[in-house]
Write a sequence for this structure.
């Protein structure tokens, strides 16, 4: 850290701060409060539009779950990581997703319980693009998940969805709407 401080001012975000808190801290640090307020207004407008678009498509009051393939593991995260999907687009986390407050590896056999009640399932795909193991699980151990039965499974960009930032939350919201409605 000392070597970096010799080159330029250094700001370290606090682990656990929400993306909104991180953005507020940086805006305050850079004296960009007006830009942060504009971001908030624009995000609120985008959220309202996303919810309206989904409602027009017959999607309202639905539960969703998100799982991540990373390396050789499957992970679940605190629902706040996917706030763009939940608060932004208006989905409700499944009970297990709501109860989970950490990032943790989970077995493929535990996914049906985690995703129980999910109308929609969002899968952050492996970075290598290999969908074989995902497709195999969707046809096998996950076939009784409501979202799978209804063919409401969405394979999404791992990097863009898992970047815990304000920009990622906007992307999650917009991508969920696009994945579901094509708009």
């Amino acid at each position: 850290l000392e070597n970096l401080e010799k080159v330029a001012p250094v700001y370290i975000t606090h682990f656990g701060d929400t993306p909104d808190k991180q953005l507020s801290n940086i805006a305050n640090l850079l004296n960009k409060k007006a830009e942060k307020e504009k971001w908030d207004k624009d995000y609120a407008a985008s959220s309202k539009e996303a919810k309206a678009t989904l409602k027009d498509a017959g999607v309202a009051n639905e539960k969703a779950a998100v799982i991540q393939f990373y390396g050789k593991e499957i992970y679940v995260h605190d629902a706040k990581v996917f706030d763009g999907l939940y608060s932004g687009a208006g989905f409700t986390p499944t009970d297990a997703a709501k109860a989970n407050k950490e990032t943790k590896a989970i077995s493929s056999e535990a996914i049906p319980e985690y995703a129980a009640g999910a109308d929609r399932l969002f899968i952050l795909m492996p970075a290598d693009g290999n969908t074989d193991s995902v497709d195999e699980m969707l046809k096998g151990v996950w076939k009784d998940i409501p979202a799978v039965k209804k063919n409401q499974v969405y394979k999404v960009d791992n990097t863009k969805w898992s970047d815990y930032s304000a920009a990622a939350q906007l992307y999650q919201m917009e991508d969920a709407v696009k994945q579901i409605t094509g708009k």
